[in-house]
Structures
1.
Amino acid sequence: MGTEGAGAPPAGPQSPPSPPLDLDALVRRAHAAAGRSVGELAKAHGYRVPTRLGQHKGFIGQLLEVVLGADAGSESRPDFTGLGIELKTLPIRDTGVPTQSTFVCKATIDGTDSFEFKDTALWHKLSCVLFFPVQGEAAIPLIARRFGTPFLWRPEGAEAARLEADWRALTGRIRAGELEQITGHDGEVLQLRPKAMNASERSLGIGAEGWLVPMPPRGWYLRPQFTRELIARAFDLDI
DNA sequence: CAATGATCATCG
DNA sequence: CGATGATCATTG
């Protein structure tokens, strides 16, 4: 389709689509977005595309929320409230290999996390995810990056067990006062890494002496090696 | 302030 | 050149 329409293009955001009423409706919208570019979808919804993601890191994810009618905003609930589905963009190379880790949620580091994995925010975020692949190589101009085919992921069996094992091990170390020794090297499929606006941000976490002390906030991330497995299975790729 | 959305920058 | 640690914008 042309990108230079003759009429005046909308300058600002339009009224966003309402939330999809059921999974079918969401899947239909999602597949309609597959194969389209960031520029196309932005234009269709009245958004301007920044030149680089640098100062706008969440742009693609937030554009997709609008396109698909996500209704959660910045609240702690699934992107598609009624469906219990979490939306995540997944930046990939043209080979299908993810270019980045995937942020899941802020980690609880003060010892108040549940003892049951399935009661944690981490599990609730991961229990039903609509992954939306998008070209993620910095060499491709943001406006030209295309979305791939989305796929729904519900971890179960051995996969869910791997997530839980990492969570259990890392949470155990947090409770044992070893948080400050945990690095991004730890965890097979999950990572516990810094998640902050800047180096001066602090959260209360369990220190080496067992007391709560201010320290850099942490977040849970999925390793790119793990999301690579998910991509490979979803598209039957040999990567 | 803490949640959402992530990518950037640097090092081994 | 991939992974880790650091960082940026916006919203309720």
2.
Amino acid sequence: MDAAVPALPPLVSRAFFARDADRVARALIGAGMSFGGAGGRIVETESYDPGDPASHTFGRRLTPRNKTMFGPPGHAYVYLSYGLHWCLNFVCADGSAVLIRALEPTSGIERMRKRRGSEELKTLCAGPGRLCQALGITGAQDGASLLAKPFAVRERAGRVAICVGVRIGISKAKDLPRRFGLTGSPFLSRRFAANTE
DNA sequence: CGATAGATCGGCT
DNA sequence: GCCGATCTATCGC
């Protein structure tokens, strides 16, 4: 008889991503994600779509950079921010995507600390740029499938309390409530105003 | 702790 | 030429 080891939650399917970004962004709070074995629990996301002035796909204009975001759901859209930080998105339906903003580190922690050059667990993956640095994600992963190694995305187990707020670091459409977080998590890039749902 | 400046460069107008 | 879906260090209170 095997011992009663709890099974890992199942890997998500392509259908998980084939929805609008707001729904996927919510579904991802509490879900697991890793790259090459390093990763954790997703605690913060933001959604973007073609109707959103802050989105790279705004107005449905195809450019060299955003072509992955217009591609099939279930792939990574990775771009360079401010000339130095990589940002990871999960491509969803119809030119929409979810920016992965923060993780609660659970696996490969020492490797992530080494990549970041920091011991501090709370800020190891707190922010899109830090998260990519910790996991070792760069533009080389743009267009890669999220349904196959070295990526792994797992459904969340059980219920979570999700809070909602306005997005961070944008100048357009700054009032849209498209930032989602795990209520009370110490691993957020920034705290939410007290407006849990 | 909040505000701010500087780093640094690809994408787009 | 301008402007970022950021981060860090540093300054002021």
